[in-house]
Request: fold
Amino acid sequence: MIEALDFGRIVVIGDLLLDCYVTGRVERISPEAPVPVLLHSSRRSTPGGAANVALNAASLGCEVALVGLVGTDSPAELLRRSLLENPRIDLSGLVSDPDWTTITKTRVMSGQQQIVRIDEEHVRPFSEETTQKLVASIVRALEGARVLVCSDYAKGVLSDELLQVIFAEAHKRSIPVIVDPKRKDFSAYHGASLITPNRQEMRIATNMPLGNDQEVEQAARKVIGQCGGDVLVTRSEEGMTLVRRDGTVFHAAVRRSEVYDVSGAGDTVVATVAAMLSAGQTLETAIQYATVAASIVVGKVGTAIVTRAELSAVLHQEQRGEGLPVSLAAACEIAAEWRSMGERVVFTNGCFDLLHPGHISLIQQAAALGDRLIVALNSDESVRRLKGSERPFQDQKARAIVIGALKGVDLVVIFEEDTPLETIMAVRPDVLVKGSDYKEDQVIGGDFVKSCGGRVVLVDLVAGRSTTALAQKILGPKKRHRDITEA
Reply:
């Protein structure tokens, strides 16, 4: 899964934007004119354009060198401060030009509804001196890079001259170039390894219909003829279609999502693809990850990012549907993300060999004590050491499938030790749950959880229910089993 990937260094170059959001609520119409009156509540700014691509890639775990042009104005300072919050982003490639205006897009929002957008931009050709500074930044940034992304918002930074330099320098170093295009003619991107237009951009560039898979594939082949690289078409609710130079086609279905705002979703897609390629994944695998990332980001208001933990959590939720446990590293990262969102993490553990009503009651009571429940299972070897060579009756994968399918269980993790102490100390749950057959001072990890501000809760057990009794009933009275106690 994603937590095991080793992401490489990528370069992002393109148009830098500052996205601003003025939010409030509308309760009346102005008496001066038939326009809504917004009662202002807050204002925030976030990196947009190529800066949003960089921020998304860094949030997934990449080291990112960002190259672009800013003015010497206050929006440029806001943009720098926002980007400096992520230490993985190298801003040494930013070029300041006093004659350039940092592009700002201000969206006025009532709740989740956008009322109006105000664009502040004065796009004009920049000097030869600025061009040479950008070229120097590109050359420096490419050292040690695995992938280069051109984020073109048609604001002038990715000029024909600069694109030629980018492709030449990248090809010298065998670095693949991904282009997120905005031009009406894609031939300027000749030399790109991958181009990622959305459906509307494809329609404009090819003047071809895109109503079905066959038409999309035909248009993509036309673009391949212009650019020479593979083409990934993002198609909103219809998913994504990859058409390769060798003629192979790959369709990736979209993940269902409650769509609020698609601002910057293309940035997230190209950043995720670049990140996965930097980790040595295939393009098809990268696209599958990108569909998940896109489904997350469109559920957020405004230009937004997807963190590695968020993507991991969604992937593991899907994986849990297949009954698979997560690694301890993944569980720790996901639990930290939950806590950062103000959610209370509950933890319980056991062998859970033959599931019975006592186990169900324990899980239900534990789930009711917080927002998220992690269940830790003894591995097969751990069970054998504790219960004897004839145990477990079900292997750890089977037990994980059963526990993971229970309502209220958010993650299942397997531990190899005799006790869950190491797992508890790594996950740092807010609530630790055991059965009432324990005393609080007997609960493994209880002191640690309480020292971190958490609590230990002993829940009621269902009388007469145990795996021992169930096994003896199944196997008959002639078969003797060592006395066991389950969680």
